[in-house]
Each structure stands twice: as structure tokens, then as C-alpha cells.
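Q&A log
Question type: sequence-to-structure
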Amino acid sequence: YKAGVVVPEPALQAKLLPVLRDNTQALRLHTSAYSMVAYPWAQRYQQSNQWAIETIAMAHEPAATSRERAQAWLRLQGYEPSVLRIGAMTRLGARMTAANIAFDDHPNDKRFGDRIETVTVDSVFAWLARSALAGRVQVVR
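Response status: OK
Response body:
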């Protein structure tokens, strides 16, 4: 097994700690409708990496009081989702056999172009490094 860890910079830690200690605040941007490949700029579904960065946005920017506003802040801060190339037959098979995968929140032009944008650990780590909100990735084996 291999894991990656990034430590937020001290100012972000100070903003995140009270949010994460308060269950009401920590769940403020949580959406129970889950999709492993949720579109990062929609509010219909959410996945765990997406919740994490939207919560970072809310903690960092007081005006990010909704998922829509948190996503706008993430765009302004240069967050870029990963693009997965997933063909129509694979999408159909995944949707039919897994309850936690949905593609209907993705824009049609991207979805039918086999371009599925989603929040991955790699995209989060890259953004945190670019934005200087966290230190380097530490690999744990």
C-alpha cells in the first residue's frame, strides 16, 4: 500500500481547525448524493475529494457559504480537475453495475466526448502545491 499526505500551511491550518471541530460547519457543504466521478463544477453529486477542497474553500474564504460559491473560489484559485478518458460503453457498464457512479451531472459536450472531469487526489495535491496552500506530498508506504 502507498498513501500520500500533504500538510496545509499554518494559516490554512488555523482556518480549517475550527471548521473541522464543529460538525455543523464541517458538514455545511456536504451533499449526500454521492458519485465517485462527480463533476467538480456541479452540485448534484459530491465525492470525498470534492468535499475536502470545497471545505478548504469555505474555511479560507468567508464568502464561500455554498457549494456554488466554494467552487467559484476554487476556480479563481486555479484548481483544475483531472480529466479521465472514459468511453460510452465503459460509462454505461459502470452506471448499470455500480450505485455510486453517475455521469449525468457532467456537461453533455464533455461526457459525449469521453472527457470526464473529476476531483482526484492527484489534482488536489497539484493544486495545493501550485497555490502554496500546503507543503510537498509526503509518500507513506
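Response note: DSSP finds seven helices and four strands in the chain.
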